[in-house]
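For homework, think about our next protein:
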Amino acid sequence: MSESPSNRALVLFSGGQDSTVCLAWALERYDTVETVGFDYGQKHLVEMDCRPVVREAIRAAFPDWAAKLGPDHVLALPELARISDTALTRDVEIEMGENGLPTTFVPGRNLIFLTYAAALGYRRGAQTLVGGMCETDFSGYPDCRNDAIQALAHALTLGMDRPFQLETPLMWLDKAATWALADTLGGEALANIVIEKTHTCYRGERSVRHDWGYGCGTCPACDLRARGYENWRAAQRA
């Protein structure tokens, strides 16, 4: 008997904190979990090197999850960098733009990622896509908002004639709550994997180790991660 599509999930996995927590979340809930990453010419390409390291660390630390963790896929989307003029794809300062959005915003990135993931999921028999989008504690990216994600889920369902679900377990969590979720799902072992193995820094800095992990410590991604970590640890001590 073939596995039901409802028991398979495809996680958008960058190798960062959020997508690692989402991967753990999916491994707790689905029988088979595959991962997909995107090489879109990002300056912090080191995150792609972290992806297999994080997957293997999870396999080693969590045997029950290892049995569920399926293949990894990497899709190359170089045109996204070519048409984008952003701090993640070109030599542009990280600052607020005239449009009120940070220059780290890559227009259409999440919409493109999810559409490609759905096409892959169609072939792999996975109609549940899991992503780390969040509009609670984020940089203001419009394609991280729940309305945008659920509108796309509706469009994908209509366009592919299959009922796609887009799960965003971090949507209503701040970064402290994301750290707490990692602890709830996998305890200190998962928290340590997030600290030691994942990469979130927009500048691709991995030579400086902080309490919360590696990064430049000043970019918006590092700032969110650091403040979340501090607030989570403070709540544990309270």
